[in-house]
Fold these 3 entries.
Entry 1:
Amino acid sequence: MVLPNRNSASKASASDLAAKIDPGAVMRIKNLQLRAKTVVEGFFNGLHRSPLHGSSVEFSEYRPYTIGDDLRGLDWKRYARSDRYYIKKFEDETSRNGYLVVDQSQSMGFGSLEYTKIDYARTLAATFAYFLTLQRDCVGLMTFDEAIADYIPARRRVGHLRQLLVALSRPVSGTGTDINVPLQQIANLVHRRGLVLLISDLLSPVESLRTNLAYLRSRGHEVALLRTLDPSELDFHLDAPSMVQDIETGQEFYLDPETAKSDYQERFSEHQAQLQNVCDSLGVDLYTISTREPLQDSLFHLLDSRQRQTRGTARSGMIARAATGLKGAPS
C-alpha cells in the first residue's frame, strides 16, 4: 500500500497534490473501469508532479534494513539505486482485505448536476477497487438499499475487478435505506481484519449507526465513511414556495422558502455534528464529499485514513485485543 508521509503531507493538501480532473468529464466516460483508471492515473500524476515526490511517499512493500534481519531479504537492486539497505516484504505481509459498502438506495439517485450521487459513488467505489487491486490488496463489495443487493467476497484473481464493476453498475432500487443490515453482515461475514469503506449519503439515524460501527471496530476492522452529498444538499436553496417529493417514499409536501432553508440547515448541522461525534468516539474517519469535488481527493482520504488507523492500532493494540475472531494491472 502506498502511503503519504504524515509530516510532509500536513504541509500540502490533497488539492495541492492531485492533478485535478473535472468530475463531470469523468462521468461522461461510459466505461466504469476506464473512469476508475482515469482517476487513479491522475492521482499518480499529481504525486509525481508534487514537491512531496521522492520524500513523502513510501512503498510498504519495502522496509529499511535493521540489525538482525535475514540478509537473504535484501534488495540489492534497490541498494544500487539508493545506496541504502531495504528488505523486501513478502506479499502476505502487505496484502490487505478491503470491503466497499455502497449505498444504492433511491436517495442516492438524486442529483442537481449532470450526474447523480450514485454516479459519483459508483465511480468512487470503482476507483478504490481499481487502486487497491493495483496494490495487490483483496477487494470485496456489498451494495444495499433497504436490504443487501450484492455481496462479493474479497478476492484477487483474474476477472474479479470486472465482477465488482458489474455489480456496481446495477440501477438504484428499493424504497428506503437500512444502513444497519450491511454493516452487521460485513462484521459477521468477514473474519480477517481489514478496511471497511462505507460510501453513502448517510441519511439514517445516528444511534443505530453508532452500534454497528462499534461492532465493526471491535472486530478489529479499520473503518472510514465517505458521506457523498450533492452540492444542493450542502447548500440548500429554494427559489419559491414549492411542492416537493420524497425520492424514496414518494410522499409530497409543501415547503416555504423563508423557513425551509433555516430549518434544513439547523437539522443538517445537528445531524452532521452527531455523525462526527460518533465517528470520533470510535476512531472512525468521516469525510463529507460534495459530488462537485475531484475524485482523486478521496484517494488521499483513503490513504490518510489507513495510515492513521494502522498506526493507532499499533500503538495501543486495543482494537486487536478486542477482536473476536493496496502491482500488477487488474483485469
Entry 2:
Amino acid sequence: MRDLRAVTTHVSVSELLATTAAERPDGPLAARVALSPEYRVTAERVDTWLDRGQITTAAVSFSRDNSAAPLSLMSSDVEVQGRRWPFLISADKARLLVKDGHTMVLSCPELWEENLRRMSLETVEAMVASLNTMIFLTPPGTSGFHQHRDRDDYVVVVQTEGTKIWRLYDAPPHGWTEDDDTRPAPESLSAEVKLEVGDTLVIPRGWGHAASADPSTLSIHLSFGINYVSPAHMLRVALINTLRNMRESATLEETQSAYLEILDEFENSDADALVKEFISAQYRTGDVRLRDIAGR
C-alpha cells in the first residue's frame, strides 16, 4: 500500500491550491494546512445557512451509497401565481436526510458566503486556473458515493470537521476521458489515508477514489476542483454562447460573420489576460449598491 503520510504543511488553503496548480503532482499527496476562519466549515455553520434560507435546490444534493435523494425529500414548496414551485430547501427535511445517512453536497458556497467568494477570487487570480468549490457533509460511518474518477485536473480535499477515511485506487487507464464512467476495480486499491481537521489530500485527474466518514464522527470537507483554462476552451465557450443566442432564421453568412468576428477578437487579444478575466468573472461583484441608488 502506498504511504500517504503528510510531510508538508501549507500556511493557507490559498497557498495549498496555488502550489498544487503550479507543481502539478502526478500522484495523490497528503499534507497539512492552517485553516483560516473563512475555510473552517462546521455543522454549526451549515445549520446557519439552512436556517437563513441561503441554500436552494440548485446548490444542494443528497446521496447515500451512490443513490440520489429525490427533490421532494429535501424541498419545501412555494406558491407563485397559483402554482407550487419546489425550489427552497426545507431545513428540517435536510437534517432528516443527513440523520438518515445521506451525504449533503453543497455546490458553489461562495454564491451566498461573501468571505468564501473573496478568498476564491484571490486564489484563482494567483493560480490562473478555475476553481470548483464544494462542501461534503457526511454522517458518521456512511459513504455518499462509490469509488469513482473525477474529471477535474486536480481535486484538493480539506477536512474541516470530524474524520474521513479515503481509499485511493489505480491511476486512470491509458486513454481515459471524462466520458468514461468505468469505476475503479476494488482490487486496485493502492492506499488508505485518514483525514482529520486540517489534513488535506490532492487527487490528480481520473485517479480512482472513495471515502467514508469515521463511525464516531460527522465529517465535513471542502473539495476544490482545479481546472486549467486554455484560450481554445474560452473560444469554444464564446462560440457556443454566440450561436445559441442568434435568431433561428440567421443566414449562413450571418453565422460565418459572427464566428469570424469572435475569432478575430481572440487572435488580437492578450490570451493570458483573457484567461484571467474568464476565471475570475464569477467571483466579482459590482460597486453599485441599492442604498447608493436610493440616495441619488
Entry 3:
Amino acid sequence: MTAIYLIGLREGLEITLVVSILVAFLVKSDRRHLLKFVWAGVAAAALLSIGVAALLQAGSTYLSGPRQELVDAIASLVAVVFVTFMIFWMRRMARQMAKELRGKLEDAIQVGTFAVAAMAFLAVAREGLETSILFFAAAQGSDTMQPLIGISLGLATSIVLGYLLYASAIRINLTKFFTWTGALLVLVAAGIFKYGVHDLQEANVLPGLNSHAFDVSGALPPTAWYAELLRGMFNFTPQPSVLETIAWVAYGVPVLVIFLLPLLRKPAAPAPAPAVQPTEANPASTNA
C-alpha cells in the first residue's frame, strides 16, 4: 500500500497542479465563464482513467494461466516505461509547466469552448492514464483492498495539498518534492520491472523461474511488517530468481544514478569569508 500511496500522491499532485494552473489563469484573466468547460474536460479525463483501470483489472481477472501472466508482464513493462518517462519529463518541465499550460489554454480559448474542454481533457488524461497503468502494475498479486485504499489516500492527500497551494495556505518546494518522490518512484519502478520479469518467467517466455539468486526467507519472515514494507514498496521477495535480481539491479541502479546526477553535479556553495579580526580591519583601533 505504501508504494501505491506514493504513486497516488505523486501523480495526483501533478494532476492537481495542472488543474489549479488552468483555473487560476481563467480566474485572474476574468474568464470565469470558461471554468465549466475546464471542469468538464477534467471530469471526462477522470472517467477515462477510471475506465482504463477497471478494464485492465477486468481483463486480468478473466484471463488465467500463462495468458494472464503475459498480460500482467506487459502491463508491468509499460508501467516502467511510463514512470521512467514521467519522472524525467517532470524534472525537466516543472519550472516551465505553468507557462506552457497557460500558453496552450490561451490558444484553445481563441479556438472556442470545445477546444478549452479538450485542452483540459488532454492535460489531465495523460497523468490519469499513467496513474491507472501504474496502479494496475503495482497492485498485481494483491487480493485485498489495500491497493485501493492506498491510491485513494494518495489522491486525497494530493487534492488537499493542491488546494492549500492554490489558496497559498502552504508553500512546498516542488522541485525538491518531485526530485525525492521521483527517486523513490525509480525504486518502485525497479520492483515493477522485477515483477514483470517474474511474470514472463511464469508465462514460460523467459527461463530460470526456479533458479534462485539467494534465499533469505528464514531471516525475513513473510508475515513480518518490515517484510511487507519491503515487498510493497520495492517488490522485494526473499527468494527471487537470478533474472529478477538482475532486472532490478540493471534498471534501478543506472536509472537512479542518472536521475540524481544533476544534484551530484551542482557546485558546492562557496565557503564563507573568514571573519576579519579587529586588528586586521583597523590596526589603529588597537592603539585607541
